[in-house]
Amino acid sequence: MNKILICDDEKDIVRALEIYLKAEGYEISKAYTGLEALQRLREEAEVCLVLLDIMMPKMDGIEALAEIRKFSNVPVIFLTAKSEDADKILGLNVGADDYITKPFQPAELIARVRSSIRRYTMLGSAAAKKEELVLGGISLNDPAKEVRVDGETVNLTKTEYGILKLLLQEPGRVFSPAEIYREVWGGDPYGTENTVAVHIRRLREKIEIDPAKPRYLKVVWGRGYKLEGTPL
């Protein structure tokens, strides 16, 4: 059974989320502060998804996520208010995989949860077309889940890894934001261009020497993104 960690300082929201998710067969762990979420995640290695509120006392969701990313690549979906657009972008930059705006619809919540868990449990273990994908100085060893750039290991989140693997499988092909979201997140791509753009920017910062003048990960304006380089 997949376990989901819910963290929100509003107990009514935690309870509502618990009811929705238990009805879908998920096991639930609960926390009410960022610090408590960190403790739960360290103690419960079987957690496969975190639903994390942004606005919390003592340690907010942004701070908690930054700490989580120091020891775990578990998918994190932010729970945000409509007025927190800047925090959504910051959260994606820090390492969040997605966000859900409050008040949320149960159907949307379940769809995003399913997509994130499916990506976490299946994308990384799915058979690649090749065990190792290489383009220029980038190499992705899928069995080892290891990415190297110019010989140096690069630490990617599951989402960043999925995007890079997708683009590496077809160098030169332009993928639209909708295609990337559909393939990597596994959900409805409507209105997700900004989410994809933030993850692309974060990935570029990790694989490019100068992200402002990328060697590999290019934007094709009005169409999408592609990887360029000399295949080896």
Protein model, in words:
With 232 residues, this protein is an alpha/beta fold. The chain has 2 domains: 3-123, 3-Layer(aba) Sandwich (Rossmann fold); 132-227, Orthogonal Bundle (Arc Repressor Mutant, subunit A). 41% of the residues lie in helices and 22% in strands. The chain is built from 8 helices and 11 strands. It has a 5-stranded parallel sheet, sandwiched between helices. It has a 4-stranded antiparallel sheet with strand order 6-7-8-9, covered by helices on one side. Strand 3, helix 3 and strand 4 form a beta-alpha-beta unit. Helix 2 packs parallel to helix 3 (61-68) and helix 3 (61-68) runs parallel beside helix 4. The chain is globular, with a radius of gyration of 18 Å. The N and C termini lie far apart (41 Å). 34% of the residues are buried. The model is unreliable at 124-129 (pLDDT under 50).
The biggest sheet amounts to: 5 strands, parallel
Question: Overall pLDDT, averaged?
Answer: 86
Q: What oligomeric state do these chains adopt? A: single chain
Structural class: alpha/beta
Tally of strands: 11
Major sheet strand order: 2-1-3-4-5
Which homologous superfamily in CATH is the superfamily of the largest domain?
Answer: Response regulator
Fraction in helix:
40-55%
From the N-terminal CA to the C-terminal CA, the straight-line distance is 41 Å
Q: State the low-pLDDT regions, or none.
A: 124-129
Give the overall shape. globular
Integer count of domains: 2
Helices and strands, in order, run as EHEHEHEHEHEEEEHHHEE
**Number of helical segments with 4 or more residues:** 8
Radius of gyration: 18 Å
The CATH architecture assignment of the largest domain turns out to be 3-Layer(aba) Sandwich
β-sheet strand percentage:
15-25%
- What is the highest CATH level, the class of the largest domain? Alpha Beta
User: If you consult CATH, what is the topology of the largest domain?
Assistant: Rossmann fold
